[in-house]
Amino acid sequence: MKRAILVLILLIASFSLIYAQEAPSLGEVYSGKVIEPDKYVLGPGDVLRIFVVQENNKTESFTVSVSPTGFIFLPLVGSIKVLNLTLSDATKEISRQLVRFYPRSNIYVDLINVKKVNILITGEVANPGNYKVSALSTLDDVLKIAGGLKASASYRRIFIKRGEKVLELDYLKFLKYGDTSQNPYVEEGDFIYVPLMGDRVKILGRVKSPGEYEVKDGERLKDVLDMAGGLAINASLFDATLDRVDGTRIYLDLYGLYYGDKERKDKANIELKDGDSITVLTETKRVYVLGFVANPGPIQLVEEIKTGPQGEEIGGVTQAVVGAKISELIKEAGGVLPNGSTRRIELRRGGKESDKIIIDLYRVLVLGEESEEDIKVNPGDVIYVPPVLKSVKILGQVRNPGVYEIVEGDRIREILLKAGGLTEKAAREGGELVRLENGKKLTYKFNVVNALQGIEKDNLELKDGDTLYIPELRRLVYVLGQVNNPAAYEYREGRKLTEYISMAGGFKDRADLSRIAIVREINGETKVIPINVNEIVNKGRSDLDITIEENDIIFVPEVFIKGWQDIVNILSGIFYVYSLLKPIVGW
Questions:
Q1: N or C, which terminus of the chain has less Cβ within 10 Å?
Q2: Which ranges in the chain are annotated with CATH 3.10.560.10?
Q3: Residue 580: its pLDDT value, please?
Q4: What are the Soluble ligand binding domain coordinates in residue numbering (predicted)?
């Protein structure tokens, strides 16, 4: 059991070493460093302890030092070169050599004493000079050993010359973000140079760490805001300015920088110049109406709107009463532009994209109706009116023809209602939906009344770019029986019986002119009006040439029909022919 515990301890220790020693000279302080075997490079002065655990649990150990020429010496094996090998790579090489003499054994390598390295540090540090430091020292350690950076020092461009290679390091990234790649271990002979601070900008106001920050070429607003820890609580997204040394003032779009689309973010993330001064003000009680409205921007929320003597709002700032609804604020912003959506309005609580609500305010903003979706806003909320993405056109016999926005799932019924419904002249059948699919123009017919009732086969789902057409109801008069061209004819107000007979090509030879019947709907009842055309033609009885009304049926019987008692047979013939014509004429 004791042997097993020993092996476990050696396993854990083989790739790590907590380094602790008396406080070194020149102010070095190491509160306990963990060696990274993949990064620590061996050199003269390092001391290794090597454990060989054999199959029978017998353990041998060797303590060796790296010689000035970079070798270690092991019994049986001899010299092994470890100069400039990482601890991991040296362990592999030592194991490869020893396993020839200790087959089926486990080999572990531990670093028990760390070498010292000589470095030179110059430039903007408190105490430049030569130092002998532990090889576990990083750039951060040696800067502290040298008394720290001066106020004039660059944190963004520190150089380490290592032989022929020069490393350029951004020390601020290590301090701010813990980027260890910018805080490497020092090595023997390193020459460290800290130059003067380069271009710098100030950032003041509602950021987490106000102050002066060094910037590199090409760095932008977002980079400096990040260096300053980001925006503080109650920072205004719309009240931030950038003042340049030439007196130019730029109003910053911080909302777009953090919450806009890619194009807006890129535009808001302006490049910085030496001497720029950024100020982020405190948020006041306001909301923001943005996007496709006439006057986008902030709106001040007040308990009572105060106006000047001429009725203008004091201070020239748009105001609204605390507790105002979305629609009221949109109206304060000048209303939705023609290409703005009323059906996909976004309410971002506290300006956060993650707390976004999509609201359909068409009926409120366009029709002036009320809606439960028209909710109250809170200070800090952002209302965004996006552009119309999908639309259809509706033409013909609706009260308000035009272009209407649609959302996913909209059908014909919704658009007919949005267009104000049908006119009195609208056809009840024969509606058309025209759609472009794969470069081809397709037309779908639908029953208008069925679509309004929501019957699915006629209430078709709409797609972007569709055109709906509601035709006019054909106003007709039907001339049937013994005429040369029996058919349905366009109704025109004031036309007489004889005019429609003429339009139908006149009478046939077997037409009974004395027994012409006009069938008319009067107050929901069917009435038959008998007319003797002989009286009109032969005796000039123009009073019998009655005015025909819309949907009248003029029926000319054959001469063999005897008396008015056969009117039932006449009507049967009329309705039979009418039933055949109905699908054609659309009545």
A1: N
A2: 117-194, 200-282, 391-470, 476-585
A3: 46
A4: 201-252, 322-352, 392-435, 477-525
